[in-house]
Design goal:
The structure is a single chain. By secondary structure, this protein is an alpha/beta fold. Helices cover about 50% and strands about 10% of the residues. The protein contains 15 helices and 8 strands. Helix 4 links the parallel strand 3 and strand 4. The radius of gyration is 22 Å and the shape is globular.
């Protein structure tokens, strides 16, 4: 397992980042504004000085920054849990930043005891609130949630057990947060420009007319066809686009599990399989070479180089894990269009672009008091954890739906 990266808060660095926040939002995030919904800060302030796990949805790579800025507005500093692999990005520089603003690592889908101990410590001590994204992956869908993990509730109960052992009758709360990204202007020209880049890269003839949706579908069809050829998939004549995407995900995961000689989990949750495979790859790639001869080290390096190629396959599965035909057509806002387009950008161009100035809308739900579930947790852990997770999901979905209903929308054809 990858080594644990603990938090190393630097008040000086955090203060500097806060000072530079307006410039970063304008130039580093393409002129992004933060708008906290009326009443949200007041609800959050009710938990001032209390122990809490703050759980936002995770649709965008800028969610951690959004939560940092929310902390500024709430006049609080947070600790954060982040996936272990992101600490190695940019040759480790990304990890340095994360640790010094109070983040620590977790190996997803594995019993990461050091990370769990840190979570228990932070929640039981209550010096700062802890931010954890319960979806476990970036969904890249602004209006909907991936199925939530019960880990948020479980970790909170472990921390409360620690309090009880110390004879401290304090409460621990889970706080639902909704983050919604909207574009403040008309981004159709930027969408058209991105489509043109993709059409050029993929050799897709541009359909006649000025409508964007047919162009997106033509690009998506070419992409799926190319990936089917890459993974030796032959779809049936009556297969829908959804069927083909599902078959592709399963083909990739099955191929990897066969190569790595590992049995896929029996659950139908794709992310369970992704995490199992990712952890197996990490275990091999970062395995200690102590005691190996020079020749054995060379063999290990050759195998590791080959296996590292699977990271791209896993990234591909996650990129398409929650996409489905109809996501745009059922509610064709420019934000939904951008959601899907950015997945294709990520796959074909290797990066995504912000299509224009944005506003991140933030709302705060009603805190979930774990003490009120403690009796049920002691009698039936599984049921209690699922009830709390369902309540968290219901509140987050409700806030996202309300914000979507209330905002002024721009549509794409």
């Amino acid at each position: 397992m990858l080594d644990f990266r603990p938090p190393k808060e630097s008040p000086l660095l955090i203060g500097f980042i806060k000072l530079c926040a307006p410039l970063y939002k304008k130039y580093g995030m393409s002129d992004t504004q933060i708008k906290v919904k009326d009443g949200a800060l007041q609800r959050f302030a009710q938990l001032k000085g209390k122990r809490a796990l703050v759980c936002p949805n995770h649709s965008n790579r800028h969610d951690p920054q959004a939560m940092f800025f929310f902390g500024q507005a709430a006049k609080e500093s947070f600790n954060y849990v982040a996936a272990r692999e992101v600490f190695d990005w940019d040759h480790g520089f990304n990890g340095w930043w994360l640790q010094h603003i109070g983040a620590y690592s977790v190996v997803r889908g594995a019993p990461d005891r050091e990370s769990f101990k840190m979570t228990k410590k932070i929640l039981s001590e209550g010096k700062q609130k802890l931010v954890l994204f319960p979806e476990g992956e970036i969904s890249r869908q602004n209006d909907t949630l991936l199925p939530l993990e019960t880990g948020a509730a479980q970790l909170s109960f472990w921390a409360m057990d620690e309090l009880d052992k110390q004879g401290v009758a304090e409460h621990i709360y889970i706080v639902p947060i909704a983050l919604k990204y909207t574009y403040t202007g008309d981004i159709k020209p930027a969408l058209a420009n991105t489509l043109a880049k993709l059409e050029g890269k993929m050799g897709v003839p541009r359909p006649s007319g000025t409508k964007l949706y047919p162009r997106l579908m033509a690009v998506a069809e070419r992409l799926i066809k190319a990936l089917e050829a890459e993974y030796n998939q032959e779809p049936s004549k009556d297969a829908t686009l959804n069927d083909r995407i599902t078959a592709l995900r399963m083909a990739i995961l099955t191929h990897m599990s066969s190569y790595l000689n590992i049995e896929l989990p029996r659950s139908d949750r794709t992310l369970d399989a992704v995490r199992l495979l990712r952890n197996r790859i990490d275990d091999f790639v970062y395995e200690s070479e102590d005691g190996l001869s020079e020749y054995e080290k060379e063999l290990h390096a050759e195998k590791a180089a080959e296996i590292k190629g699977f990271y791209k396959d896993l990234d591909r599965v996650v990129n398409f894990v929650s996409i489905y035909d109809g996501y745009i057509k059922s509610h064709m806002t420019q934000e939904r269009f951008a959601d899907v387009l950015e997945r294709i950008e990520h796959e074909v161009l290797g990066e995504t672009s912000i299509k224009g100035p944005r506003c991140i809308m933030i709302d705060v739900g009603n805190p979930i008091d774990l003490r009120s579930y403690q009796h049920e947790y002691k009698s039936n852990k599984k049921v209690a954890l699922q009830k709390i997770t369902d309540e968290l999901s219901t509140q987050m979905n409700g806030m996202l739906e309300t914000m979507e209903h209330e905002r002024m929308k721009k549509f794409v054809e």
